[in-house]
Amino acid sequence: MKKQYLIHILAVLLLSVQTIQAQEKRLPSELEINLKYGADRLGKRRDVFMQKFRENRLGAFIHWGLYAIPGGEWKGKTYRGAAEWLKSWAKVPTNEWLQLMNQWNPEKFNAKKWAQMAKNAGVKYVKITTKHHEGFCLWPSKYTKYTVANTPHGKDILGELVKAYNDVDIDVHFYFSVLDWSHPDWRYDIKSKEDSIAFQRFLTFTDNQLKELATRYPTVKDFWFDGTWDASIKKNGWWTAHAEHMLKELVPGVTINSRLRADDYGKRHFDSNGHLMGDYESAYERRLPNPIKDLQVTKWDWEACMTIPENQWGYHKDWSLSYIKSPVEVLSRIVHAVSMGGNMVINFGPQPDGDFRPEEKELSDFIGKWMKKNGECIYACDYAGWPKQDWGYYTRKENDIYMIVFNLPYSKQLTVKTTKNVQITEAALLNGQQTKLIEVACNEYNISIPKTPPTEPFVIKLKIKTSEGSANKYKDALT
Ligand code: FHN
Questions:
Q1: Whole-prediction pTM value?
Q2: Residues 6+ positions from 291 with CB-CB distance below 8 Å
């Protein structure tokens, strides 16, 4: 009786697995809706440019604009919200805000020093805010007067940065806010014929600025769009597809984030058929996937970005108003992202004088030193596919598996569970210290770490082989 019951359950299970598989296979041809402005491609991009984007793994974000000057304070009042949104928090009229341009004179700005700092931090790419929501351009755009050219400083900040970063082999990505508070034709929604006409003019202006960026700085590797969530953009999905295609024609191999796109129905990031638009998902802002439950993210490329305080991208004078992540916490987010097949971008908000605040220099120094010793577990690494353990994260590069240990158990014993037929043959710390490796069950090992382990997060490199191995040595208990 019991046996019959078991066979019945097995049959039902098998049938439902087959049905799910069959449904998944049928989806593209029979169940999808026809979209003009949906995903251009299914699955990950596999070309060398995308591969470079992916292998970089660690990037820095630079949020720099007029908002750095007031640094979260307006007319004697301090605002706790994100400093780059101060115009909005303090309800500053546009003309008044843009007068900050008269104070734009970053005397300590030195592009080469910025590039050296990024190099020392071990980042492989830098995302620069060419224009944030306020509309002020870090390059001398000929399509608006609100640019660096019309300030006391007068220099092409973006041009200097592109050159300096490229000179030390760092890729440059352009952050670009479509939302532009300085432009009279910007609309949050399209509610009338006038709105529609104005917004079409705005889209032409945006096209011109994008073309200008792509042609003035042809070494740009990526456009990262922001400020694309309003109804006006969602109602103009055609333009988002057009902008992506236009940039891809102008800059061969360029990558574009998912935030730009809206499909025929205004659906963003993923189209109405559930396919990612753009080249990588960019919704992970100040958050990361759940390392146990959200494994679907390993199916597409993705990039997360993170602030050091809770939510400050631009320079804010008073960081004591917020919780500040410690360098180890920032490091754990970098590792977490790579362990799930993603990139991590850490944000810096330079001061109005063009220097970085001490906390950012300290963080950058810490990350750089760690990366110098342990970077092989980050660059070009990916999701390892092994069950997550409490001590930290795995990453993988071909047949090397890395364990990055953040939570050392009191026992100093680390449990490792491999996947079917995968055996560990060696385990050693990247710093050369030896470990004791014991097979405790089928696909399960115990690694004892040295009596005096490193005082900061450390990495154990595992060598593996694949064979039937120990599968028959162990039997599960009959319970
Ligand atoms: O509003 C912006 C914010 O200021 C910052 O630029 C971040 C960076 O990802 N993006 C926007 C919010 O999603």
A1: 0.93
A2: 336, 339, 340, 388, 393
